[in-house]
Amino acid sequence: MNHPFPAQALGLARDDAAAGAAPAAAAAAREIRYPSWTDRVLFASVGAAAAARLSPMRYGAGSRVTGGDHRPVALACRLAAEPAAARAYAAAAACSPSSELRAAGFGARVVAVAGCGVDWRRPGGGGADDDAPAVAAATLTFPLPSEDPFRAARRIDAVAGLLDGGGGPRARALAVEREAARAAWGAPLAARADLVHGALARHALLALEASDGAPLGSAVLALPDAGAATVAAPLTLGGRAVGALAAVVTVSVSPSAPL
Fold this sequence. Notes:
Helices cover 24% and strands 35% of the residues. With 259 residues, it is α+β, with helices and mostly antiparallel strands. It folds into two domains: 6-79, no CATH class; 83-254, no CATH class. It has a four-stranded antiparallel β-sheet. The protein has a four-stranded antiparallel β-sheet with strand order 5-4-7-8, with no helix packed on it. A two-stranded antiparallel ribbon has the order 1-2. A hairpin with a 2-residue loop joins strand 9 and strand 10. Helix 1 packs antiparallel against helix 2 (23-29). The longest helix is centred in the N-terminal third of the chain and has 13 residues, at 6-18.
């Protein structure tokens, strides 16, 4: 774009188009990109079921932002909650007794991961097996913070227990992060959390690291409702895809301990 006043050029191009000029010719004559006023709003879909519950409400552009030949746009939409998830959040917000939480579907869940394998993505699609990073350890985190309404309360409880003593520094650190499990690469992993709901805690995070502790990538694993399933997920590092991970994921359910 060579025009010294992009906002003015955009206005002139719009006027030209309104007067009957072809939009592409109008944009070219004013030395701006075409189409220069048709940005898009992009969002990540969580699946067909969620898309059916998505209702657009408002769509507009920021007309006061005049630093370029494009306008920032915004989309507001309503996403209807799944009934089971809505009931679970309502029960959690009410701080119900543990008996009521169990009746609402909350319980202790254990996520186990075994048989992990990684298909590393190499630049240009080439490279030999020797080029693949050497994984030394893996850390499994469950549940994800965004899927756990009791995470803050459980961490407070863990810290309160540490203040009463018990264990060395390593044990204390693990107690605070009691929803995470770490093991050597190839060894089975299992992470347990109390007071989680199957309609909310649907994912776990598996992070890989090298022998020096450097991160090699992480994958978000979609959990089966119960039992075992082979799960495949992209492996990313810094927002960039570095490979594909496959693992056998097992979910077991048991009642929560009393509050």
